[in-house]
């Protein structure tokens, strides 16, 4: 029997094993510029037992297995560069149980962020991690995703309490549990979160939840320069205001948004801020926020409480990538992120703008001021080797600056294919320790091979 026939025999359903060219190609590329590479076959998985049987078979025959969620990753995590099996979790999307009194939910990995929050709303709860895309919980856990809410709630590693994992040999293990905290043994859950499918395949995930705030306010504050906006954000974070979101966008990026949206936003450094809590607390925080940022040099301060108005206020921030692509039709997305100490963020954004302008590249640059993480988004022709080489040069300069300032090559995108060159530079000899963990858990190197290392 060939690979297709053997996999049909394993899961007993030919409709969920395919070599259809369109589906194969969909599973051979991510959202960013990385060169596509098709899997040999795609399997739409439904149960942990099916995952276990498929992975066990793959391990015995040394066939690569690459987990696939929504396909929204930006560093090529889901691209099966050595072919093999793409394990699609879109049908394994059950919200298993909601323990609303414990602020905990148990889900399958194919559940998406929006699907989960729609279900949680009736309990007055929500899941706070928001990477922008409607990613799957499995994919978000695999990349340790975070996003705009991270300043208040943290990243995925702060939310995942436990995992059910299929190991490379097909065995099933559980880490963590339903308790909010534990000091029992090594933190295996934390090890697997962010491992990008290279150590095991998630089949169940236990998450902690948050209560939906009574009131939310969105604020847009303008500044004469990135440096002034950065100083204002530092003052705000030190003021005692419980900031939910705080995003910094530079003037060049606002210009791109205006061109795309046909809007007339002032093309200057902008802080997008969100506050939430009880009405009384939010009212006090808005007044204090205005006082702090105006004293720091803010030239315009606008806030909205209505949900529709809040959405419009955030449109500029959320449409940056679309604006860059619209200005460069026919090109793909080159999106990268680095993270620096909070005090270094304004200088890092200024330096990044200088770098891209030096090379004549149009880029969107924006950052999560609350944790020092920022992004650079550029449109690039993935088939043009000279453009890719140019972007790699720019990328290396951006990362080198971040590392010089005590930062990291990625705050939330993960390593995948795009950041592998920088891992040794950042971690030095400890990279060998990571490799030894990979060899122990996956001696035949079948789990998402070629990623991270």
Provide an overview of this structure.
With 453 residues, this protein is an alpha+beta fold. The chain has four domains: 3-90, Uridine Diphospho-n-acetylenolpyruvylglucosamine Reductase, domain 2, CATH 3.30.43; 95-211, 2-Layer Sandwich (Uridine Diphospho-n-acetylenolpyruvylglucosamine Reductase, domain 3); 215-318, Alpha-Beta Plaits; 322-420, Alpha-Beta Plaits. The protein has 17 helices and 18 strands. The strands form four sheets. Strands 15-12-14-13-17-18-16 form a seven-stranded antiparallel β-sheet, sandwiched between helices. A five-stranded antiparallel β-sheet has the order 5-6-10-8-9. α14 (345-358) runs antiparallel to α15 (385-404). It is globular, with a radius of gyration of 22 Å.
What is the level 1 CATH name of the largest domain? Alpha Beta
- Based on Cα principal axes, name the global outline: globular
The end-to-end span amounts to 33 Å
CATH fold naming of the largest domain:
Uridine Diphospho-n-acetylenolpyruvylglucosamine Reductase, domain 3
Task: Return Rg in Å.
Answer: 22 Å
Overall mean pLDDT score? Answer: 93
Estimated helix fraction: 25-40%
CATH structural architecture of the largest domain:
2-Layer Sandwich
Number of domains: 4
- SS-derived structural category: alpha+beta
Describe the biggest sheet? 7 strands, antiparallel
The number of strands is: 18
Helical segment count: 17
Which spans have pLDDT < 50 for at least 5 consecutive residues? none
**In what range is the share of β-strand residues?**
15-25%
Q: Within the largest sheet, what's the order of strands?
A: 15-12-14-13-17-18-16
